[in-house]
From TrEMBL:
It comes from the Bacteria. This is Dihydrolipoyl dehydrogenase. It catalyses: N(6)-[(R)-dihydrolipoyl]-L-lysyl-[protein] + NAD(+) = N(6)-[(R)-lipoyl]-L-lysyl-[protein] + NADH + H(+). Residues 347-456 form the Pyridine nucleotide-disulphide oxidoreductase dimerisation domain.
Length: 467
């Protein structure tokens, strides 16, 4: 029987990063993955493939809508080759997962392909195609991630009523895609197919899209996506989804209780994700799960069984790849006797629509609820020279700062390249910068980052220069 210092169940961003850090710190490490490729949901059917399709569809939209204004004439009709678009996406996925294989080899991490389940607190059974194997580990990290949620009355047939997994490999552009759920995944994939020519209707139970983010971001993204001809049915409670041949009929009650019927040819069910612990046999190790199926952990991500830890989507908190990575690193360093720390308030959130939406820290709604006195500074992207030069004028940057100390409490932005710009907000808040600190830093001109400086100036006695 092979013995290890650490064994990790699951090879998503949390699992494989934990494995690398454990190996770097001198531990003999194994990683167990049920699928043929490493990388988990993120690399195979999540973050990476969806961004590939978002970029491809963005190029197409630019070609048909903006090239002429830029002085680029294309003879003949610009057409979508969906098969090639999906193939390119898969190529990106394959290249990325092979990169993880290389990193495992480079760091001398043993990889087992099969379903890992607890035999007891120090032994893992691995059900492989060619039989079963058992390994022993002093410490075990559960990193089994999450899977798409649904509603109890919806039958996902993976053909017309689909999850994000199937939406990444459709054989045709839908005529009318109905998206149930106005969160990150639904909006991103909805925008992909809207660009490619589908009618898109988003049905959301809450009274706004991206409900977990600052209200101003939700309002602006709704306005922009309506301009892009996406339809929104907010405050609608879906009560049935029925497929008839190549047609999908969604029935929902609006906020007044009136029934609304929406008919399309595809329905993407995007109502969140749930922790994945099926087949883990956690009870054999004595590991406790909470009432939502998550693994219970303390502040060190340690379960009730001292040598077993859990990270990522399978524990409480935001289901984000970069959050899982930080947790994987933290557990590895704790096992090595170090004292790492994660500030969960400073884990950024991003929506990769165009314009992109990004946020870190407290929202305005949270500050009001907590009774914190704050000041707000906001700057519109359209006032930037760079935004006008690239024709990306939608959006703004908003900075929230403590009214008395000027410490930055939240940074919220929507616009071009905000997924990258939010790192400035994270950095500033990690060092407990004030709005004035940011406002006095030189930002290159012309850039989108200037909006961050200007928003900081606006929060500092309303001193924005270019509005």
């Amino acid at each position: 029987m092979n013995q290890y210092d650490v064994a990790i169940i699951g090879s998503g961003p949390g699992g494989y990063v934990a494995a690398i850090r454990c190996a770097q710190l001198g531990m003999k490490t194994a990683i167990i993955e049920k699928y043929a490729t490493l990388g988990g949901t993120c690399l195979n059917v999540g973050c990476i493939p969806s961004k590939a399709l978002l970029d491809s569809s963005h190029h197409y939209e630019d070609a048909i809508k903006h090239f002429e204004e830029h002085g680029i004439d294309i003879p003949g009709e610009v057409k979508v080759n969906l098969e090639q678009m999906i193939a390119r996406k898969q190529g990106v996925v394959d290249q990325t997962t092979k990169g993880i294989e290389f990193l495992m080899s480079k760091n001398k991490i043993d990889v087992y392909h099969g379903v890992g389940s607890f035999k007891d607190a120090t032994h893992i059974n691995i059900a492989k195609e060619d039989g079963e194997e058992t390994i022993e580990a002093k410490n075990i990290i559960i990193a089994t991630g999450s899977k798409p949620s649904s509603l109890p009355f919806i039958e996902i047939d993976k053909e017309r009523v689909i999850t994000s997994t199937e939406a990444l490999k459709l054989k045709e552009v839908p005529k009318h895609l109905i998206v149930i759920g106005g969160g990150v995944i639904g909006l991103e994939l909805g925008q992909v197919y809207k660009r490619l020519g589908a009618d898109v209707t988003v049905v959301e139970y809450m009274d706004r899209i991206i409900p977990g983010m600052d209200g101003a971001l939700s309002k602006e993204l709704t306005k922009v996506m309506k301009k892009q001809k996406v339809k929104f049915n907010l405050s609608h409670k879906v009560k049935s989804v029925e497929r008839k041949s190549d047609e999908v009929i969604v029935k929902a009650d609006d906020k007044k209780g009136k029934e609304v019927t929406i008919t399309g040819d595809y329905c993407l069910v995007s109502v969140g994700r749930k922790p994945y612990t099926e087949g883990l046999n956690a009870e054999a190790a004595g590991v406790k799960l909470d009432d939502r199926g998550r693994v219970e952990v303390n502040k060190h991500l340690q379960t009730n069984v001292a040598n077993i830890y859990a990270i990522g989507d399978v524990v409480k908190g935001a289901m984000l790849a970069h959050k899982a990575e930080e947790e994987g690193t933290m557990v590895a360093e704790i096992l090595a006797g170090q004292k790492p720390h994660i500030d969960y308030n400073l884990i950024p959130g991003v929506v990769y629509t165009w314009p992109e939406v990004a946020s870190v820290g407290k929202t305005e709604e949270q500050l009001k609820e907590e009774g914190v006195e704050y000041k707000s500074g906001q700057f519109p992207m359209r006032a930037l020279g760079r935004a006008r030069a690239s024709m990306d004028i939608d959006g703004f940057v908003k900075i929230l700062a403590d009214k008395s100390t000027d410490e930055v409490l939240g940074v919220h932005m929507i616009g071009a390249r905000c997924a990258d710009l939010i790192a400035e907000g994270v950095t500033a808040m990690e060092f407990r910068a004030s709005a004035e600190d940011i406002s006095r830093m030189s930002h290159a001109h012309p850039t989108f980052a200037e909006a961050v400086k200007e928003a900081a100036l606006a929060a500092t006695d309303d001193r924005a220069l270019h509005v």
